[in-house]
Amino acid sequence: MSELAAPVPAARRRRPLLRFAARRVAAAIATLFVVSILVFAGTEVLPGDAASAVLGKTATPDQLAEMQHLMGLDRPAPTRYLDWLGGLLTGDLGNSASGFAQGGTTPIWGQIKGKIGNSLTLAAITTLLMIPLSLLFGVLAAVHAGRPVDHAVSIASVAIISLPEFIIGSLLILLFFAWLDVLPPVSLIPPGDSPLGHSKALVLPVLTLLGASLAASIRMVRAGMIEALRTDYVQMARLNGFRERVVVWRYALRNALAPSVQVFAQNVQYLVGGIVVTEYLFNYPGLGKELVDAVAIRDVREVQSVAILVAAVYIGLNILADLLVVLLVPKLRTQE
Amino acid sequence: MSPPLVVRVEGLRVELGSGAPIVEEVSLEVHAGEVLGLVGESGSGKTTVALALLGYARPGCRITAGAVQVDGEGLTGRGEAALRSLRGRLVSYVPQDPGSALNPSLRVGAAIGDMVRAHAPGRNPGEAAFEALARVHLPGDRAFARRFPHQLSGGQQQRVTIATALVCEPPAVVMDEPTTGLDVVTQAHILEEVDRLRAESGLAVVYVSHDLAVVASIADRIAVMYAGRVVEEGPAAEILARPRHPYTRGLIASIPDHVVPRRLHGIPGVATGVGDRPRGCAFATRCLQRVARCDEEMPELEPASAGHLVRCFEWARTPALSLEEPVGTRHTSPGTEPLLAVEGLTAVHSSRAGTVVAAEDVSFALAPGECVALVGESGSGKTTIARCVAGLHVPAAGRIFLDGKPLAPKARARTREERRRVQIVFQNPYDSLNPRHRVGDSISRPARILRGLDRREAEAEVAALLGRVRLPAALATRFPGELSVGERQRVAIARALAAAPDLVVCDEITSALDVSVQAAVLELLAELRAELGLSLLFISHDLGVVASVADRVLVLERGIVCEEGPVGELLAAPAHEYTRRLVAAAPRLPEPVPTGGMS
Amino acid sequence: MTERLRFARTRTGAVGLALLLLVVGIALFGPFFAPNAPDAPIGIPLTGPAGDAPLGTDFLGRDVLSRVLWGGRSVLGLAGLATLLAYVGGATVGLVAGHARSLLDPVLMRGADVLLSFPALLFLLVLVTGVGASKATLVIGVAVVQAPLVARIVRAATLEQSVRGFVEAAVARGERASAILRREILPNIAAPIAADAPLRFTYSIILVASVNFLGLGLQPPAADWALIISENRSGFVLNPWVIFVPAALIALLTISANLVGDSIARTLGVSVGGRGRT
Questions:
Q1: Phi/psi of residue A35, each to 5°?
Q2: What is the pLDDT of residues B34-85, one digit of tens each?
Q3: Coil/strand/helix, residue C142
Q4: Has the ipTM of the complex gone over 0.90?
Q5: Which tens digits make up the pLDDT trace of A75-107?
Q6: Could you tell me if B344 and B396 are in contact, meaning their C-beta atoms sit under 8 angstroms apart?
Q7: In terms of Cα–Cα distance, which of A166, A24, A129, A111 is closest to A309?
Q8: Nearest CA of chain C to the CA of B276: how many Å?
Q9: Mutation target among B49, B151, B156, B174 for the A interface, most CBs of A within 10 A
Q10: Which chains neighbour A (Cβ–Cβ under 8 Å, 3 or more pairs)?
């Protein structure tokens, strides 16, 4: 009876999951470290430029040297890098160049902390709408694959997925502001206010972000679902005489969920990029708008710090998605 | 009193969307407690019939005519809702590949419970699952019911699907190649289990398989399918001893036997595909007793004797089975310098997950002109050894000698002459030829690279080699996609021969082929050995195949040689316990009954 | 060759190809038909369509039609060049990593992972901060962002082919690695590459246009579809055409390129993975 002697799985299964998480976090920290070197090297290849950007082209060499000293640009690059990294690790993101331009020191953290919340609000609302909607439309298209419902969903999503956010946003503004005049073209939210209190200002930015990410997720949920509906175990469920509802949800979707989670994570990551463009388009007071402004005046330290923050969130989401997938797939969950 | 009729199929026809029939005019009957073996090669339509027994047609297909009745209830011409309540309750299905037919995210108990909830709402799904598991000799407890499919062995998975099929006590069950993909020992256990269950509960079983030897061990009656039709049907013993249809006879003559090795005779030609079946008998093009009428009209099933039906105009002319001994196996005379010597070979597979030892301290020698077989189940390391010999896998330890000179581990590091002398043919015919190269280019490449032939010489060589593997020379300009599986494998052999090798390593080269095609390829190998004095290192999991081609055999168990010797002696009297288990479990046709007077 | 063009006979393929050719035609040959200079004011800013300015004027009083006719070359040229560079770099890395499978593979692929662990647009913004906004920054930046994606696809396809019998047969007869890549592997990975290329191109357009829209790529007074939208954002109400026409052209370009990619993938039977966005 050799086939009866299959190994009995270990009852404890918390440990492998924890170990997996620990491994992923360690790898993420290493990646972030490499990213920080790249960001630093990428932004400071032209030393002194930041100071002249602050002072303008009319500055005398003396003024320039003084500003460089003030901003710490006269020290060697490795020292500056370690200073910055040390600051990051202790929660100090440095001072912004716009502060230097006004003759004082303005901590970057103070300048961006309110905006982080605004951006997170935008991302969270979009995500909360995207997940159920993409599951709904993706499953709907897959179950009716090859029929009109599927064609409509598929063609619409191919079209929308191809559009840059600023095109979707511009077209929405044309429609809802220039033509219908029901929604504002810019999101005027006074500093300190929660965007949730200005719901009209949120509609178009959310719709813009939703359009891009929803189309991508629907496509992938549909593909995953169609694959799952073709498996042997779905045919087996039909041969066992199970109801179609059971077949679709308990047999197909349950197994299509894990790949979908990865798609969602990927799309939330794309949101990080899409938010920059969307906030700029709508003048939405978030981190993305702040970043574009910083790049425009070449505020090196602020760009570096914001970039690392965003990269950390981005990598963190990735780990979260991987853990969710492991939790959703019994084979991954129960194996070493 | 004969047991009641449970399954009745009448004039079944299943079509593709285009209207081309996949199966037609299929009529079958199965009584309670009876096993009907439904046999056919790939493309014969046997799985289509199996699914139609549950009123199911795969996407793109439709049941367009005929009736299926189980226990008096019709399964054709009903709506989906009605069918749903009958499937699983009246007739259930045991799939071919349990690993992919079990929902990977459902625990075993929940999977069985789903069946109970769907068809026996009054019962407690948990309790029913425990009982069902115990019935197929699995632990009927909570711990086992909480396992996921991936935590089970292949045999256990198949027992779970059988438990699921039987939990609602259906009077009939359809088993579609339930043991294909399992190792022979596990297969034997599953077959015992099926036999016991049908005896215990008077089940009517339709057992579908491509393997006549497996069916012979379990079926009471056998129906043989060819190109969508039943061509012969009758009591199992009668069919196996006195086949009346030339196809059935050819099939039996193709089946190798590991206990009584015999010379195999393949069926020439290729089966016609769905959509280009002829007006007349579909087997006519491959038939040796064909007459003019065979091309004109389709023969009807007619009785050859009581309960024995055959679809052939000329069935009375079908010769009796005559099973020959193979040409005497070669015994190498001692003192001959071996062509290939493998000494202390150890090979490992390393991956991120860890290191697995595939072969450990394996040594053997192969004399010129000899065929040595490496036999073992999957994971026994036989393919890794073959790849080491071909220079595709670097051994962890040990050496390989060709004519007494050590071979470099990597093919690139070997001399051109060494690479020419050792050639390899792979298992998967779909993978072994580059789909973007014409057949002629694939064959001529080794001749040009390894023998230095120029373009014109190589072209002439291609024509000669195609003839050598019994293929028309016109095939040279075709692409692999236009070839049948058997043709591809012949081209792969021709490509190996193009190097004019001394040793050909054959890695499971027939395992993807139907038996009748396998027999033809094995015949070809025997002829090539005789004509060219080739030596073969033959890798196989099939004892019967090995018995019919090899001179000597090495039995591998988890990378270690557990027994070796001349093939006839070793299989007739295995000494090692593992070999004994393999030999006992391998299915074979019943001993041929001497026939006489019938024809 | 007929096999490669089969996509054009599907409905989406034909529609996509026709639209793509139309927009590319406008971008390439538009300047020959421009009635006015793209950077000279011809009237009052932000007036609606009138006789000599069929699409009205922009925020500096320049002819919108002429600017739009001039403004496609930059999008197409920069995105096309970036895609090409991404393919040359990414495909080389992917082929080598996929076939060599030795030390090189993990090193190259970890490098790709690090690049991909960073949002594409953020990468471009950091680059612009460091070296300043220019065409070269844009092209090289987009190519660097895309190359790892190309490398992954090529590597996966190469790995899949490397274990097939005909490749192993070539290894066993001692063919050189370059001959194996060229003769045995490349012809068989052409399909996934062909299906991927239009999608990569779409993504390049999205990235190039987005950076230009943010004002961090091409600088005024350049005529560029994305830049036109960006600089006239406050003129939505006065002259909607200045936003609508360039937006519609970019949309047509990306949608049609994506449709072509989609139908190539379908006819070649390749499944297309997720596509990166900004």
A1: -60, -40
A2: 999 999 988 899 999 999 999 999 888 999 999 999 998 998 888 888 999 9
A3: helix
A4: no
A5: 787 888 888 888 888 888 788 777 776 777 788
A6: no
A7: A111
A8: 25
A9: B151
A10: B, C
Q: Which residues of chain B have a CB within 8 Å of the CB of C181?
A: none
Q: φ, ψ for residue B485 (rounded to 5)?
A: -60, -45
**Overall pTM > 0.90:** no
Residue of chain A whose alpha carbon sits nearest to that of B166: A240
Q: What's the rounded mean pLDDT across residues C66-70?
A: 92
Contact B349, B155 (CB under 8 A): no
Chains A & B: contacts with CB separation below 8 Å? 104
Closest chain B residue by Cα to residue C166:
B432
Q: Tell me the pLDDT of chain B averaged across its residues.
A: 90
Supply C121's token pair: 């647009």
pLDDT tens, residue by residue, B434-476: 999 999 999 999 999 999 999 999 999 999 999 989 899 999 9
Give the nearest partner residue to A178 out of C118, C122, C236, using CB atoms: C236
Q: Kindly indicate the confidence band of residue B565, based on its pLDDT and cuts at 50, 70 and 90.
A: very high
Residue to mutate among B384, B392, B394, B434, with most C CBs inside 10 A, is B434
How far apart are alpha carbons B495 and B433 in whole angstroms?
Answer: 9
**B→C interface, C-beta within 8 Å:** 390-392, 411-412, 414, 416, 419, 422-424, 426-428, 431-437, 442, 445-446, 449-450, 492, 495, 499
B325-336 average pLDDT score: 57
Nearest C-alpha of chain C: how many angstroms from B392?
6
Alpha carbon distances (Å) from B257 to A285, B370, B382, B538:
81, 21, 21, 17
Segment C109-125 shows an average pLDDT of 83
pLDDT of residue A47: 52
Residue B222 confidence (pLDDT) above 50 = yes
| Six token digits for residue C153 | 């696809």
Q: One-letter amino acid identity for C241?
A: W
Among C93, C42, C83, CA closest to C66? C42
B352: chain C residues, CB-CB within 8 Å: none
Are B521 and B341 a contacting pair, CB within 8 Å? no
Nearest residue in B to C177, CA atom: B412
Chain segment B159-200, per-residue pLDDT in tens: 999 999 999 999 999 999 998 888 888 899 899 989 999 998
Q: How many CB atoms lie within 10 A of CB B466?
A: 21
Token duo for residue C133? 């906004």
A 286-305 near C (Cβ less than 8 A): 291-292, 294-296, 298-300, 303-304
Neighbours of B396 (CB within 10 A): 18
Give the bridge partners for B345, in sequence order: B362
Helix (H, G, I), strand (E, B) or coil at C275: coil
Tokens of A223: 């593909």
Element (H, E) at B222: strand B221-226
Query: Which residue from A minimizes the CA distance to B119?
Result: A241
Q: How many beta carbons lie within 10 A of that of residue C98, not counting itself?
A: 25
**Residues 191-250 in A contacting B (C-alpha not used; CB under 8 Å):** 231-233, 235-244, 246, 250
CA angle B54, B58, B62 (to 5 degrees): 80
Which helix (H) or strand (E) segment is B35 a member of? strand B35-39
The residue to which tokens 């006489």 are assigned: B596
What DSSP string runs through B112-143? HHHHHHHH-TTS-HHHHHHHHHHHTTS--SHH
CB pairs under 8 A between A and C: 166
